[in-house]
Amino acid sequence: MALDTENQFPRVVAFAGGVGGAKVAHGLAQILPPDHLTVIVNVGDDFVHHGLRISPDLDTVMYTLGGIANPQTGWGIQGDTLQNFEMLERYGVAPWFRLGDRDLATHLIRTQVLASGQTLTEATQKLSSGLGIQHTILPATDDPFTTIINTKEHGTLDFQEYFVKFRWQPTVVGISYKGEGEARATESALTAIAAADLLVICPSNPLLSVEPILRLGGMREAIQKCNVPCIAISPLIAGQAVKGPAAKLFAELNLDASVVGIARYYDELIDGLVMDIADQNAVAELRNVAPALSLYVTQTLMETIEDRARLAGEILRWQMEGISL
Ligand code: FO1
User: Fold this and answer.
1) Is 198 exposed, middle or buried (0-12, 13-18, 19+ CB in 10 A)?
2) CB of 163 closer than 6 A to ligand 1?
3) Is residue 27 within 8 Å of residue 313, measured between CB atoms?
4) Which atom of ligand 1 is nearest to the CA of 99?
5) Is 15 in the pocket of ligand 1 (CB under 6 A)?
6) End-to-end CA distance of the chain
7) pTM for the complete prediction?
8) What is the pLDDT of residue 287?
9) Strand, coil or helix: what is 233?
10) Ordered DSSP codes for 143-199
11) Which residues of the chain have pLDDT under 50?
12) What is the pLDDT of residue 94?
């Protein structure tokens, strides 16, 4: 891997969505200088609520890198209050999607910037610099692009209806991406990928967080063309998701909810797979299924801020020193 001689760090592009992705992005941000890390974030979860433009995955990555994320939920702002929520209830509105009082400021700014004709990339730049974040956080696209969940019990649902209103319990029979075919990866995202020495697909939900990034015009080609290692961190440990519906979704869509299923899902896109010690016994099967895939087994469960930096550091060392099993 060509290294940036200036300070021996690779230029990394991380693809993230949701809480697990934000944690690895945070680990990388604790190690890499600001101009050596770009986080490209899923926008398929975005929606308009109370007239406000809400981008949950961008906010989770921003709050996590900004050190203000709610540590219990992973999303929202630590110590935030819900007085707006109580007032809405007095007006007879019972919102199922809880927006914190401080969190509201983020949505107000984003809604204002977009209403003025600027892009989501510009709104995100304004917000993340306001939070003192020096690393670059980019939405994967500035175009409308929404993940739609088709369920047995309720038909098609918008993402947050499925995820929050119905607590991802409905049986998923299909996923589609509204905007596919028109929405394109941003130039900023494509430029970051072209300049990268290493691509990291964070332990995010492959179907709900990563696929909506890969489906954007130009994205998959840019990843395949940039000719540097692309590694994924399995979001499943011993067949279970750390948080969220990844394993349930895989099972519902007849995919193998295991590290082998993850390797199959990403297939040719990835050169390496990081998995948890709990899946050590899958190494032999992975050798058969994906002989060209280099593997790295470690503790991938991140419970502390230090865990995030440790995992990120191991991954960078693995890729820079070419250690593979
Ligand atoms: N998730 C919930 O389960 N309940 C909520 O009320 C909720 C509110 C919320 C507000 C802002 C925000 O950025 C995220 C929020 N989330 C909530 C999480 C969100 O649905 C998920 O983080 C992503 O969409 C999936 O990764």
Assistant:
1) buried
2) yes
3) yes
4) 10
5) no
6) 18
7) 0.97
8) 97
9) strand
10) S--EEEEEETTTEEEEHHIIIIISTT-SPEEEEEEETTTT-BB-HHHHHHHHT-SEE
11) 325
12) 82
